[in-house]
Amino acid sequence: MNEKVNVNRAPDILPEPTLRRLPWYLAYLSTLKRAEVATISTTKIAEALDVDPSQIAKDLSFLGIRGKTRIGYNVDDLEQALRDYLGFDRSHNAVMMGVGSLGAALIADSGLHRYGLNIVAGVDINPNLVGTEISGVKIFHRERTARLVRDLNVKIGIIALPVEAAQEAADDLAAAGVRAIWNFTPSRIRVPEGVVISNTSIYSHLAVMYNRLSLIEQDGVK
Amino acid sequence: MNEKVNVNRAPDILPEPTLRRLPWYLAYLSTLKRAEVATISTTKIAEALDVDPSQIAKDLSFLGIRGKTRIGYNVDDLEQALRDYLGFDRSHNAVMMGVGSLGAALIADSGLHRYGLNIVAGVDINPNLVGTEISGVKIFHRERTARLVRDLNVKIGIIALPVEAAQEAADDLAAAGVRAIWNFTPSRIRVPEGVVISNTSIYSHLAVMYNRLSLIEQDGVK
């Protein structure tokens, strides 16, 4: 009950808004580190990122990190603590379900690898793709999914399939023992209890952007 | 003041959670349409997507659409209304800032094109990339940005650059007259008033997923 947060063990549950802000801090800290800045104050971080200073202090306190009065945070230490906490330095094995346009693009994105995602195999039903490699990642037939998950110690299944195939793929992955599903389709996917679901519908973000854009254009006409 | 929502004119401001759910409905309706289902009830949509039925009725009422008692919604009409409303059938010109791994992947993703995003040019500073084409999209030097935005009627700038280059690119785009910026970097970007900013940090989603995953693994050990 009274345990303190300790970055060396698995992290406690954090509010999702905090979790989403931590990568902003990390991105900013990495820039400072490259520029060889030694220390940084909450106020400076707040200015750079347009986040309330008290919010930043609160977010970082979840990691058990407190700045020093008048000095602030040590840039190297804070950067490393954020990397550790966010799990970007650990390797997480994943399988890509669907290696069409988006799936292939995600496999090719070295950024994901840099953030600890290790895509060990691709899965598709297209006979022209099965047996090939994309950026060094082998593509297998869908019926091999369960075996791939077991043999390659896959914890994360990424779904970049057509909408109508998404739920079935999620069911296959969950049955095979995957612990988290990252859904890139615009469709809602259900998973059994105990399986993490993360939705990244870039097309939904597009819808939000188009809507805001048309409002601005309306204003422009007025 | 008393205007009704009309899908034929530019949409009113919607709560962002509603806007994010609309693509789920569209994805589900498209599946039904392909399966030649004629009508669908709120209850069925609710079951399929795990959303509260009253929430669905409320979301769709923003589009001026109401289901009929005992019949529900006409699948074709609702699908089309959602497509119209979300702007996926209109073409939006965009420029890709940074055509490294992620930028090139997004250009290659035909899904974005299907959802109305027309990437007309890429921008980079890498001399090996400038002058080449990626999936038929020409890559220009960064100093050409303002001219590209003007000449090609670009409304949206997409940023897939290293963190430290993101803010400067956003400033260039805003100065050139872009109306919306879609930021794929994990860093926070500031834009002038009147410019829409949309953040899709896939790496932040990764952080949230890792965190939830380590909690599950902790539970498993207990």
Distance between the termini of chain A: 58 Å
The major pleated sheet of chain A works out as: 7 strands, mixed
Query: Could you tell me which chain pair has the largest interface and how many residues each side has?
Result: A-B, 76 and 74 residues
**How are the strands of the largest sheet of chain A arranged?**
5-6-4-3-7-8-9
- Tell me the total number of β-strands of chain A: 9
Can you offer a commentary on this structure?
Two copies of one chain form a homodimer. Chain A contains nine helices and nine strands. In chain A, the strands form two sheets. A seven-stranded mixed beta sheet of chain A has the order 5-6-4-3-7-8-9. A two-stranded antiparallel ribbon of chain A has the order 1-2. The first copy, chain A, has 222 residues and is an alpha/beta fold. The interface between A and B is large, with 76 and 74 residues.
Brief write-up:
The structure is a homodimer of 222-residue chains. Chain A has 222 residues and is α/β, with parallel strands linked by helices.
